Automatic annotation (TrEMBL):
Coiled coil: none
Keywords, ordered alphabetically: DNA-binding, Transcription, Transcription regulation
Domain (HTH araC/xylS-type): residue spans on this chain: 158-263
Name of this protein: Helix-turn-helix domain-containing protein
Organism field: Shivajiella indica
C-alpha cells in the first residue's frame, strides 16, 4: 500500500501541482470507511489504475460511480469517497485554469461534475490507460502519466497567454487579503470581465474561488499545527473571526470545523496508518 506524492516535470510547472498516488488493499469483506473530501481550489484528472470508487455528493444527494480516466471540474460541496477493496489511483490536481487551457471546455459546464477524459482526447487516453495497466512499478506509472501530460500540453496549449492568466497564480495565494478588485487590477480587467472569465476557466466566480482557497488553507494550516485553536487558525488564514470561518465550513462542507477534523481522522488513509 502507498500514500505518496510525486513531483511533475519542470515543463509542467504552473500547470500540474503534484501527482497523488494512492494504493489501498482491504480484506474482501472489510468495512471500508469513506473519505470526506471537501472542495479545494483545484480541478483534477484522475486515473483509476485498479478498482473503482463511489462518490456521494452531499449537497446534490447524488451518487456517482467512477472507474475510468476522469476529468473533474471545480467542486463546491463536500463529497464522500468510498473505494473498492483493491484500489490504485493516480490523482492529478492542476493549478487553477490549467485544464481549461488544455481542453478549452468552459468549466462552468463542469462545476460539481466529472467527464470521461476519453471523450476529450480519445486515442491518447486509451493509450495511457493501456500503458498504466501494463506498468510494473509505481515510478513507471508516474512517468507514464507525466509524459502523457507533457505531450498533451505541448500539442494543445498555445504559448501566448490571455490577460486573465496573469492573475491565475494569485488564485492559489494563501494571503487572506486577496480580493476581487486586486485580482482584476493584476489582470488588467474590469471586475465584470474577471467574473466572466473566472467562470469559464474554473467554473465559479472569483469570490467563490477565493473563499474555497481560504477554506482549504485553513484546514491544511490546522493539520500542520494541531496545537492551534480554531480561532487562531481563522485569524492566521485571514478570516475576521471564528464565525466567519465557520460559515465557509457550513457552506462548503456542511459541517463545523471540529466535525470535519473528526471525520478526516477516520478516513481510509489514516485508518491504514498511511499518514
Amino acid at each position: 500500500m502507498i500514500f505518496k506524492n510525486f513531483s511533475p516535470s519542470p515543463e509542467l510547472n504552473g500547470l500540474v501541482k503534484t501527482y497523488h498516488l494512492r494504493h489501498f488493499e482491504f480484506p474482501a469483506h472489510a468495512k471500508i470507511p469513506y473519505k470526506p473530501f471537501p472542495p479545494r481550489d483545484e480541478q483534477y484528472l484522475v486515473f483509476y489504475v485498479k478498482g473503482s470508487e463511489q462518490v456521494y455528493l452531499q449537497r446534490d444527494r447524488q451518487t456517482v460511480f467512477r472507474n475510468k480516466t476522469i476529468l473533474i471540474g471545480q467542486s463546491t460541496q463536500m463529497i464522500h469517497r468510498m473505494v473498492s477493496p483493491q484500489f490504485l489511483l493516480i490523482q492529478v490536481p492542476f493549478y487553477p485554469g490549467a485544464l481549461y487551457r488544455l481542453t478549452k471546455i468552459p468549466f462552468y459546464e463542469l462545476k460539481d461534475k466529472s467527464l470521461d477524459f476519453e471523450l476529450v482526447f480519445p486515442q491518447e487516453t486509451r493509450e495511457v490507460e493501456q500503458r498504466l495497466s501494463e506498468a510494473q512499478c509505481y515510478p513507471e506509472m508516474i512517468e507514464i502519466v507525466d509524459r502523457f501530460l507533457v505531450e498533451l500540453f505541448r500539442k494543445n496549449v498555445q504559448q501566448e497567454i490571455h490577460y486573465f492568466e496573469r492573475a491565475l497564480p494569485l488564485f492559489s495565494s494563501t494571503e487572506g487579503s486577496t480580493n476581487v478588485d486586486f485580482l482584476a487590477s493584476q489582470a488588467c480587467l474590469s471586475t465584470r470581465q474577471l467574473e466572466r472569465l473566472s467562470k469559464r476557466y474554473f467554473g465559479v466566480g472569483p469570490k467563490t474561488m477565493i473563499r474555497i482557497n481560504r477554506f482549504t488553507w485553513s484546514f491544511i494550516h490546522k493539520s500542520r499545527h494541531p496545537e492551534l485553536t480554531w480561532f487562531d487558525v481563522a485569524i492566521d488564514c485571514g478570516y475576521e473571526d471564528y464565525q466567519h470561518m465557520a460559515k465557509d465550513y457550513r457552506d462548503f462542507a456542511g459541517v463545523t470545523p471540529t466535525q470535519l477534523w473528526a471525520a478526516d481522522k477516520n478516513a481510509p488513509d489514516r485508518v491504514l496508518g498511511l499518514r
